[in-house]
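Can't attach files on this board, so I'm pasting raw text. These are the components:
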Amino acid sequence: MPESALTGVRVLDLTDERAIYGAKLLADLGADVVRPEPPGGDPLRQRGPRADGDGASLWHAFFASSRRFFAADAGNAADRERLQRLLDHADIVLSCDGNFALQAIDIEAARARRPDLVHVVVSSFGDDGPWADLLAPDLVAGALGGAVAATGTPETTPLKNFGELNFMVSGAYAAIAALGALRHARATGEGQRVTVPVHECIASCLEQVLMLNWYGERMGRGRVQPRQGGTHWSMAFTVMPAADGAIMVTPAPDFDAQLIWLIEEEAHQDLLDPQYGEPENQPLLVGRMMQVLRDWVATQNPEELFFRAQARHAPYGWVQPIERLADNPQLAARDWWVPYTIDGRAVRGPGAPYRFSATPWQHRDPQALNADADAILSELGWEDRR
Amino acid sequence: MSARPLDGLRVLDFTHVLAGPFATRILADMGADVVKVNSQERALATNSPDSPYYVMWNRNKRALALDMKNDAAVALCRRLCATADVVIENFAVGVLDRWGIGYGQVSPGNPGVIYAQMSGMGEGGPWSGFVTYAPTIHALTGLTHLTGVPGREDIGIGYSYNDHQAGLHGAVAILAALEARHRTGRGQQVDLSQFEVGVNFLGPSLLDWFANGRAARPTGNDLPYDPAAPHGVYPCLPEGEGIVGERWLAIACMTDAQWRALRGLLGEPGWASDPALDQAAGRAAASASLDSKLAEWTRTQHAAELMACCQAAGVPAGVVQDGIDLAERDPQLRHSGFMQPIDDPGLPIGQTYADRLPLHFERTPCNEYRRVRQLGEDNAAVLRDWLGMSEDETRRGEADGVLR
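---
Top answer:
Structure tokens for the assembled complex are below.
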């Protein structure tokens, strides 16, 4: 098997939902990521969805991919020493406050012995400040971070994104923190602690939200874009109901090409009215064109319309239900899916977010708890020590 | 000036719009020398330094203008590629090959180069030529279908989530490739498909489809798979007109203990003492009626006060904050100095601002935020630092229309 990008990098994974995705990114890139669990097992092994009702956690299979697991009892002196030795052999520790192993190990003491050690601390709000102790599961984190206010329609409440997408932002940032600090350690021998507040991570990934706050008035609009469903803040991209389903439609980036297409379809209504040709009436034209498009799209099959649009280089997007991804021709042509083993059964699962020409991304199935303990112990030289 | 984690890293940046520029913004914030290549012809709309959108994603980079229709500019560009650690682009497939700076053309002379391509659909496959923006990707990946309320599969995420994530994943990939180069001495090509990044986010739901044949559907503010209730966004007293004046509070009871704490705050009303509500599964089954009872309670209260009251009792709660809240009310962001004006205005659009990199490196703090540069503003400095060119040569190139 060829080496992956992070082959040989040792990571101790003490994360929860807020950063487990970051540890996954490192693990799938080939790092040797060890995830200790308390005697009762990682609580994240209970997260749904599960196979066959109450079988293995599919959530855990995805987020804890490519790891080695290690059971330890923080109340047991021998286990505490094992955790400490795992730490002493790591290049990177990723931790979230509340992880059971933090009671058993002394990361600061390890850093004193190992000045090149990188410690990435992911917390809801950072080390200190007025909100440092607040509780923020994904929904609350998304609300405070600014994501929830931007999503939903005027008729619905503000909405969270599906699943735990906010924590996948902090997870990705955690991986960047780890690899950035690792590069500095490789160059200088100096490790460090890096703090990653989930709150700031979310707030930094909101496209128009901070832009409108700072520049909205200069742009001739308000400082806040009220939630408006599937319509982009620019007003030029919107999700429209179609004959069966929905499609994301836009006249951007080439309004003239869209107009010509509507004329060919004899669906252009009054868009050739000279008033729309005046440069100062550009917003009027966009608004009217969206209405005309809405009337036309309502009569079209969304899947067919998507392919017709893309053939004209128009960036429409069919609103696909998840099951249609299973037979998606693009994913199939790029051989994207990877085999997972769930409760001993082969199941198709999600593949890589990026491809490396020389050091491939590789998904490895998680092992049963403690399946790796002997290997880990022997690699750390614990047998020799006797 | 203290060291930053990516000091000395040379990045040649051909990206535009959001996903690519967000990747290089992170590298630049971490100290990389990111040289953004632009041209008079292309510096329009979101690719113009006068556009607030451009200002958001292109701080801390240096600006080089190259008219790639000019052979001398293409030749200069090849020399820059030969000395770059990272080349990154999100053009349509084949554009850089035509300029003679595709990976196959750059790597023989620069075997350490990390060459990152961030296209909508990745290289190869029947959809590789498709034109996509984030709303397109959200639609195609299922993110739009799933972010909504039951029966409404046309809402989706209200901002370009996947563009930011593609940028973050681009940065992860480049940093991982740097570690591989540290070990092997070799660079490589990275092919990032924004579509595949987005599909990946639905990992557990895709496994649910393949293992159980169950297709995920929108669940509003409920968690899709685990019982947690109450778990929603509830109306509070409005503080202004219209939608922007609405105030909402998110409350998420993730444990039975948090529910008991909330019950205490509610004053232990009779309906809440129903033993069926003691466990999460029972509460989740009754979530619609719980939500309406809770909304009656929140509707007459101030969101920020109620949040403080919930949190003090150990109930996870947070105000639904908009951009003005983040900038002006959020005491935590103020404490950390998350948003700051950029000292040197120097731009036609006036004072600009930065939201700081949310990574706090203890030894290599990333505290430098330099303004967005005008088209070609750094021509002379970049060509001096990267190629040893004299200022005279640069000025001649500018006069000849090569550097514009």
